[in-house]
Amino acid sequence: MRTPDITLRQLRYFAVLGTELNDHRAAERPSITQPALSAATAVPASSSSGHSA
């Protein structure tokens, strides 16, 4: 099974989400927009299902 590639930016966004526990508040942080936060933290169904394609 291949592990997903995660960028430093995605890790940063996950850390902010973990701290804020709310995507709207997390997006209020400097340098983060709501669409970018949602897109970066979205997990495609194929990678989260546990089945290889």
Structure description:
There is one protein chain. The protein is mainly α. The chain has a domain at 8-41. The chain contains four helices and no strands. It has helices spanning 8-20, 23-27, 34-41, 45-48. The longest helix has 13 residues, at 8-20. The radius of gyration is 12 Å and the shape is elongated. The model has no long low-confidence stretch (mean pLDDT 76).
Write a concise keyword list for the protein shown above.
53 residues
Mean pLDDT: 76
**Total strands:** 0
The largest pleated sheet is described as: none
**Percent range of helical residues:** 55-70%
Global outline: elongated
Oligomer: single chain
Rg estimate, integer Å: 12 Å
By secondary-structure content and strand pairing, the structural class works out as mainly alpha
Number of distinct helices: 4
The separation of the N and C termini measures 10 Å
The topology string of helices and strands comes to HHHH
What fraction of residues sit in β-strands?
Answer: under 5%
Low-confidence stretches: none
